[in-house]
Amino acid sequence: MTEAILLVGGRGTRLRPLTVHTPKPMVPAAGVPFLTHQLARARAAGVEHVVLATSYLAEVFEPYFGDGSDLGLHLEYVTEEEPLGTGGAIRNVASRLRCGPGDPVLVFNGDILTGLDIRALVETHTSSGADVSLHLTKVADPRAFGLVPTDADGRVTAFLEKPQTPEEIVTDQINAGAYVFDRSVIDTIPEGRPVSVERETFPGLLAEGAHLQGMVDSTYWLDLGTPQAFVRGSADLVLGHAPSPAVPGRRGERLVLDGAEVAPGAKLTGGTAVGAGAVIAEGARVHGSTVLDGAVVGPGAVVRDSLVGTGARIGARTVLEGAVIGDGAVVGEDNELRDGIRVWCGARLEAGSVRFSSDC
């Protein structure tokens, strides 16, 4: 297995304001762009050639990763001129693949943090003789997901939309966002128009009698589509709950990048990551949070399960809990922001102006 496609073209609308200036795969998680973790895990599984299917802010990727040689990879970049969906994006990059029609190609969604055994998925694909193989995971509450039931041999029997009633929940298995395609199957996806693999390609293949194999791997799995999930994923990487060879330091309660300043009386716990040039002042307490490059957390501030954007400033004694502060925003002293509040990039909140409001 030497080739993979990474789908990194999404606009990351649910992640705003994190994605106003940065495509979501490039938002830092545990000190490096999230995409770095995916690429490093692919390389560790034996992948050598990766094609990145880009769209939104496509110009950001290549200056950072270059040809991929620093990661031991060969990277290529293909940009969609118009959004093509998951299937359309896969088809759009097919000409850059080097393998033959019967060879396997790994495909990843660019916003999934997982402990998937990539080699095992490829082995499942080749040993079962499948046309496409899917990573499936089990979730306690599958109502927010499409369901993928399988037979006793792991062969996919249906693709079911999000269930609306208890009777419709026929399995707890969901599509986990990683696939292995035979190259010949990729070449059958229509060109030049939007195509969803979830709603069109996979159901269509099943209707035609193709062999779609499911592999259940219920190790760590998290969809990073919301700010709260992204913050949690970064903390889990730092703590070592989520695997990645790309975390730039030792796993533990905190990860502080070179150039950051943390006062002796500050306390960092719960997998907190502090970016280069950031400042954590005396008496501040930061738990399970991400503080990006150049941000400042003032004296006595409390930051819990939150993200503080690049260059943002958090005033003294301010409390953030489950909050997202956009790049360059300023939150004055003695504010209290909780429960998913988002402060837009460059916004300014005066001292003591907000107490647990959701209107920022």
From TrEMBL:
Coiled coil: none annotated. Residues 4-236 form the Nucleotidyl transferase domain. InterPro entries: GMPPB_C, Mannose-1P_guanyltransferase, NTP_transferase_dom, Nucleotide-diphossugar_trans. Residues 253-343 form the Mannose-1-phosphate guanyltransferase C-terminal domain. It holds the Pfam family NTP_transferase. Belongs to the transferase hexapeptide repeat family. This is NDP-sugar synthase. It comes from Streptomyces chitinivorans. The lineage of its organism: Bacteria, Bacillati, Actinomycetota, Actinomycetes, Kitasatosporales.
